[in-house]
Specification:
Order of helices and strands: HHEEEEEEEEEEEHHEEEHHEEHEHH
Number of strands: 17
Largest sheet: 15 strands, antiparallel
Distance between the termini: 77 Å
Helix content: 10-25%
Length: 436
């Protein structure tokens, strides 16, 4: 069931940028409003596809470029707008750190009632693959997953993601695609979704009832006869995905779209943003999830040879990734360090060794790599419902850039007027004293 979009608050004078945070939070609101458990599962499937697309989606902000990081914890709050009986607020946290103990801060001190949450926790690792013909690829495995909780229905959805494949990396023919199995399971409703990401960006899957163990006779039946299938889905994750057996009397999942359309990757994408499947992992530009790509780069520079294919091209690709990625990722780009080594014999002249700093990471990160450290990534959403009385006690929102500029100009004008008034003081004639 697709609910109308949340109404912006009165304080929003400018059009909001349609980034991944707003897309995901809107889907959480839709899931909370859906009465049918099958419809809620379909919306959670849209969350999975949306996150996969945002991994490769570009950003219109120049600051969204992946950079080396030792630790990052971003906490933000967003007013989503009004809803029946009150307002909705989004609490967002994004973490990228080497510490496995860091968790999202609790909302126990915040006002309101939590309606829905989504927590994505990943620990990426990578391996290389090679063929005898010279073709090679790198696989980024999204170890971990996500959990979606709908408190109104007391449901919890566990989610696993496919792997990200980058074919012919470090070349102009680089092509990214998702491959493998993804799944969503909700034990409370007894519904699961099994999704298979195939070659050429194809997707096929099924939304069905969780199959029970059953008797020995039931086990002899085909899987299609043992479980109840609600919907089958097919399409391309980078374009559109449709479902079968959709009741035409139900409202569309996407407003003003056919009823059988489950996902459209171009919806709410924003100007200047697109899914970049031809990305160069050694020269990344602004992306929707730059901190996740910081974790990806960390995994690419920590490839375990035991997990990689035992071919010459695969081994060479691992060496090239470790040597070329720091050229983009390092802090020094055109500098070289001269290091003098004294020879054992006093007769030999001092030798100079030139070390390319572009192939180095910051010492603090190199120390983490020596200790077998890996970057962890976590993205947490919490949609909270607040009554009008609770909204009155909220902390004032920060100034927008326009309001801040107006306030600065007004303060400067007041300061100038005071300075002009202080300069107009009375000057005493020679020999006369003025009482103060």
């Amino acid at each position: 069931m697709m609910m109308p979009e949340i109404t912006p608050t009165d304080g929003d004078n400018e059009e909001e940028r349609s980034d991944s945070y707003l897309r995901h939070s809107q889907l959480l609101v839709d899931a909370d409003s859906a009465e049918d458990p099958v419809e809620r599962m379909l919306i959670v499937c849209r969350l999975l596809f949306s996150f996969c697309c945002d991994i490769l989606r570009t950003s219109d902000q120049v600051t969204d470029v992946p950079i080396p990081t030792l630790g990052f914890h971003h906490i933000a709050r967003k007013e989503l707008g009004t809803c029946p009986g009150g307002n909705l607020r989004l609490h967002l946290q994004e973490i990228c750190t080497f510490s496995s103990q860091t968790q999202a801060a609790a909302l126990s001190h915040q006002k309101g009632v939590v309606r829905s949450t989504m927590t994505i926790a990943l620990r990426p690792w990578a391996r290389t693959k090679g063929l005898l013909l010279g073709n090679n690829s790198v696989q980024i495995c999204l170890e971990g997953g996500a959990v979606v909780q709908l408190d109104r229905y007391r449901e919890e959805y566990t989610m696993t993601f496919p792997s990200l494949m980058v074919h012919s990396p470090l070349t102009e023919d680089s092509l990214a695609d998702f491959a493998g199995q993804a799944g969503i399971t909700c034990l409370e409703s007894g519904i699961e979704a099994k999704i298979n990401f195939k070659a050429n960006h194809a997707v096929k899957g099924v939304v069905q009832q969780i199959s029970s163990r059953g008797s020995s006779m039931e086990k002899l039946l085909p899987t299609s006869m043992r479980t109840k299938v609600f919907h089958q889905l097919a399409g391309r994750w980078d374009k559109r995905i449709t479902i079968t057996n959709r009741n035409p009397e139900k409202p569309p999942l996407i407003e003003d779209q056919p009823g059988n359309l489950l996902f459209d990757s171009h919806q709410d994408q924003g100007n200047g943003c697109y899914i970049n499947k031809r990305l160069d992992i050694s020269r990344l530009g602004p992306l929707q999830l730059p901190k996740l790509w910081s974790a990806f780069h960390d995994a690419l520079m920590s490839i375990d040879p035991d997990r990689s294919a035992n071919t010459t091209t695969a081994r060479q690709l691992g060496v090239d990734l470790k040597s070329q990625l720091p050229l983009y990722y390092g802090l020094h780009f055109n500098e070289r360090e001269e290091k003098r080594h004294l020879s054992e014999s006093e007769e030999e002249e001092e030798e100079e060794e030139r070390i390319d700093l572009r192939k180095r990471l910051p010492p603090c990160i190199e120390e983490q790599k020596e200790q077998q450290g890996r970057l962890h990534y976590q993205l947490s959403y919490s949609v909270v419902f607040l009554t009008p009385d609770e909204m009155e006690d909220q902390v004032p929102l920060p100034f927008s850039p326009t309001q801040a500029q107006q306030l600065t100009q007004r303060q400067r004008q007041e300061a100038a007027e005071k300075a002009a008034g202080a300069g107009a003081t009375t000057v005493a004639p020679p020999g006369e004293i003025i009482e103060v």
